[in-house]
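Posting for a labmate who doesn't have an account.
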Amino acid sequence: MGITSAVFVNALAKAEAAGVLDAWSRGAKGTLIRIFDRQTLEEAVRE
């Protein structure tokens, strides 16, 4: 099962809006993700 870039970016944006994480692009070096609320993130992934 693959995941498209658009789906991943949308999920990051929603999690960022909810205050669960902070993500920003570093260009060719990739995306840096800082997780603020790990428990909430784990609950969302389980569902």
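Reply:
Got it, the structure tokens are right above this. The helical segments are 5-17, 38-46.
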